């Protein structure tokens, strides 16, 4: 059995003729001529192989029994079509859908609150999931396509050949210690000053691996992966750590940040995405929004 392929326009014409009870009124609503509407209905009837309107000698337009049965079905088809068309149009304009974003904590706490606050004003129906993690975890989420877009640093490009990196922010590496630590008297530090101190490594410690200070990492006794635990240990005076400036907790009166002068390490953080893979409309819109509003 060959199934009829309906044209949305013909279904609309049928509904309008039925509801407005005449071809003339339907033609006026469709901004078409009456013969054009008649042809449209005739083509639809040919597809269905049955009449939709009774042929009577009065001016009234009357549905056949089949036409009465088909009318709610046609309305249902139009309803689903229009909903899908609207959803796709909104998605193309990044106004609906689900955007998954992963970011390093330093950017998600310092930069993203204001940026996302402005971005979502125009997209009240767009769902956004934000995953907070270190750079390596963010990169893996992007590579495994668990998120649409990521924000992190990319210190070792050779380890992530499939990643495209767009630099956005720069900040300097420094030493973070308790306010009672003697180091707070310094305005900047040489890495050798840290030799006799207990250095706590964290996810950003890899920034020192290609510098003269690499030996500090080899001698480090502690590694803490989460920022909450790291800050708690620093506040307890357990040791010192190195962090980029954006990762230093704002409004923390117990800790101090001292720039590292030698080596001077500048971290670049930006947008990471898979090469040769198109972003979703929402992810592309967010990327453009971030670039536009941070330069």
From TrEMBL:
Chain segments annotated as coiled-coil in the UniProt record: none
Pfam families: HTH_1, LysR_substrate
Entry keyword tRNA-binding: no
Residue span(s) of domain HTH lysR-type: 6-63
Sorted UniProt keywords: DNA-binding, Transcription, Transcription regulation
Domain of life the protein comes from: Bacteria
PROSITE patterns, per database record: HTH_LYSR
Family, as annotated: Belongs to the LysR transcriptional regulatory family.
Name of protein: LysR family transcriptional regulator
Species of provenance: Shewanella nanhaiensis
